[in-house]
Amino acid sequence: MKNKRSIKLLTKTTLFYLIFTFFAFFLSAIYLTREAEDFINDELAQRFNYVERKVRRQIHEGKPSKKPSSSTLLTELAVSPNLSENPFYSDTVMYNTDTEEMQLYRKKTIFLEEAGIYYKLEITKSLEDFYRLKNAIFGALIPAFIILAAAIILFNSLLSRSLYNPFNKILTHMRTYKVGSGQAIKKVNTATTEFRKMQQLFLEMVDRIENDYRNLKEYTENMAHEIQTPLTVIRNKTENLIADERVMDKQASTVKIIYDETNHLSKLGNTLNLLSKIENHEFSKAEYILTRSVIEKHLESISEVARLKSLQIEKELSDKHQLYIDPFLLDIVLKNLLRNALRYGSPEGPIRIRTTVDSLSLSNYGPPLDENSEKIFERFFRKNGSQSDLNHLEVSYEYGNQQHHFTITDIQQDLNRI
Q1: Cα separation of 202 and 379, whole Å?
Q2: Residues 64-109: pLDDT tens digits?
Q3: What angle, rounded to 10 degrees, do the helices at 165-176 and 128-163 form?
Q4: 13 or 237, which is more confident
Q5: Residue 315 — very low, low, confident or very high, per pLDDT cuts 50/70/90?
Q6: Distance from chain centroid for Cα 353
Q7: Do both 250 and 316 map to the same domain?
């Protein structure tokens, strides 16, 4: 299963803040638009009411004028009007002689009555200035948001370099820490409470891990040392039994099993020490090694055993193939692969070992595994070689055409080529 793509905390915070700011600006735009509409309506209402009061006063004084102003028209009616909608408003487009262009106007029509005489009063006011102001307010929000968003991104970028610098240093210490290396971890100076807590927890964790590692290593070394004495006694006694023909005539298979298992136990202590060192990355002398000469040396050492088991070995080795690995670990990997090829190989076909610039592969004929192939890389599984995931090595296995195929790829070299 692939890991989901991760996002930095500051980037995620900035993104959320920008989304929040966008919606805040959007809601603000809606609010300001409504406020502008209310302002326009209130301002027009005041102007309409002013003209209406002025005309009413003139009518009451008996001095009605058909054209009280350039935007007002007063008409005397011969019959009484329908007062069900009084007053009523409408928006219309009219020609403005001053600007010599068509503009939007709002008209208020109201019916007035004085001494039994009805008048129709029409008042028009231009909306251009009001809507120009409204559009200017709304349009200013967009560049304001862009400027604010750019300022936020720039500020957070500068902030990440200073505020998160201690955090990144602590992460570097976590990434480079190796158990049992004896390296001193320098404390990072920071005034941020959360970073201090994280660093303190990390240092406490390192102390616990180092203490547990020392105890485990001491126990493993002591066990491996102490077990050698009784095993040596058992092996010597077993060798005496092997030399006794009377015993071997009756219990040859039993004695041989005891002798073989004793040797296996004798090697177990060293194996446990090796596994412990591998798990704790104590093999730090990794280097680029051209594998051809190393592989040929191992093939020469097993050639006699292969001949006795009637197994042929075919090789196709590249002079350019190399692995970035500790030399001791490379020997262990090759010994495991070749040992298992000899142990479980079949004379039906040869053992093939091949290297290219990118990979090392080894195959041998034999029946398929009874167990799940995924178990082949478990540490103490008896029907296989071992997986080595050190120094970015990836070991893969597949079975096909009656052959077991192992392939070793140096992931680090593949990444360097990208």
Answers
A1: 29
A2: 765 666 678 888 888 888 777 788 888 878 777 777 778 888 888 8
A3: 40
A4: 237
A5: very high
A6: 38
A7: no
Same domain? 16 vs 151: yes
Facing residues of 384 across strands?
Answer: none
For residue 390 the two structure tokens come to 């050190």
Mean pLDDT within 144-163 = 78
Question: Domain span at residue 261?
Answer: 193-279
* CATH number, residue 29: 3.30.450
pTM (2 decimals)? 0.42
Q: What angle do CA 11, 15, 21 make, to 5 degrees?
A: 140
336-367: pLDDT as tens digits = 888 888 888 888 889 999 999 889 999 999 88
pLDDT higher at 298 or 285: 298
CA distance 116 to 77: 11
